[in-house]
Amino acid sequence: MTVLQMLKPHAGLRVLVTGGASGIGLVIARAFADAGSRVHVCDASQAHVDALVQAESSTEVNAITATLADVADRAAVERVFADVETQLGGLDVLINNAGIAGPTGAIEELDVAQWEETVDVNLNAQFYVARRAVPLLRHAREGGAIIALSSVAGRLGYAYRTPYSATKWAIVGLTKSLAIELGPAGIRVNAIQPGVVKGPRIERVIAARAEQLGLSYEQMEKDYLARISLRRMTTPEEVAATALFLCSPGGSGISGQAISVCGNVEVL
Q1: Which InterPro entries does this chain map to (predicted)?
Q2: CA 161 to CA 105: how far, in whole Å?
Q3: How far is CA 178 from CA 63, 145, 186, 194, in A?
């Protein structure tokens, strides 16, 4: 195998992407499908799942299948894995992507229910999914892989976004611990830490932060970009490309790492 060939994942990988019917998750799912993987996604949004199923209905090869499920609900996670067994017959790669932005506000003003929801969706769900995935990954043909979506907020402090940041730091701890635990079984575990990623989600975050600080959206966006060394947002495709590399032969020696794909965000 040449070095160039090592940059592409093996064809036929069985991949599960949580939160995979929109945003970064959907871009990752389609990237794996384009690389010849068999992909199943789950998502909590009926509208997003319906749109994906409709779009995939016209695809004859490597169509992406989907389950409507909120992975913060353990019963829903069981349904997802029942579908994974039916659709894929096993699992080689888990992309633990599902997450929410959580509330924006000073710590003394945050609603406890919103804190708990952020922890449930961003952290507890990763645990629920990983614990069900690992028994399948132990039988992966080329050695299993888990990629957890953290955030640049998982390596930097993030004022007024404490629920989000706390969960993204915790994901890194979970990743590094699982890499040690599962390494002897040939399962690699890494985290990707996206930065300011283009799309509707970051637009909502910037708007909420601008309102919190009494700034215009344009000024808040300018402030965000000024904190990035490359002075631009990251694209979902750049995040997906990193996920593909980590699951390729070229990435087979990488485990226990939190890899920032962010243009070098200097401060949040």
Answers
A1: NAD(P)-bd_dom_sf (IPR036291), Sc_DH/Rdtase_CS (IPR020904), SDR_fam (IPR002347)
A2: 7
A3: 31, 11, 12, 20
217 tagged catalytic: no
Ordered domains of the chain (ranges, CATH): 10-196+235-261 (3.40.50.720)
The span from the CA of 224 to the CA of 140, in Å, is 41
Instruction: Measure the CA–CA gap between 174 and 171, rounded to whole angstroms.
Output: 5
Compute CA distances 221 → 109, 232, 233, whole Å: 24, 10, 10
pLDDT digits (tens, 9 = 90+) for 202-242: 899 899 889 989 999 999 999 999 999 999 999 999 999 99
Q: Which residue has the tokens 């999914």?
A: 129
**236-246 and 23-34 helices cross at what angle (nearest 10)?**
50
* Whole-number pLDDT of residue 145: 98
**Full-model pTM:** 0.94
CB distance 248 to 8 below 8 Å: yes
Residues 252 and 244 sit within 8 Å (Cβ to Cβ):
no
> Tell me: the pLDDT tens digits for 57-80?
877 666 899 999 999 999 999 999
DSSP state of 120: I
Residue tagged active-site, from 158, 164, 217, 224: 164
Secondary element (H or E) of residue 118? helix 112-119
User: What confidence tens digit (pLDDT) does each residue in 89-115 have?
Assistant: 999 999 999 999 999 999 999 999 999
Element (H, E) at 174: helix 162-182
Cα distance between residue 103 and residue 36, in whole Å? 38
Residue 182: closest CA among 137, 228, 248, 233: 137
Name the amino acid, one letter, at 97.
N
Considering only CA atoms, which of 88, 75, 86 is closest in space to residue 15? 88
Residue of 145, 132, 124, 120 whose CA lies nearest to 78: 132
Which tokens go with 251? 């990435």
Helix (H) or strand (E) holding 188: strand 188-194
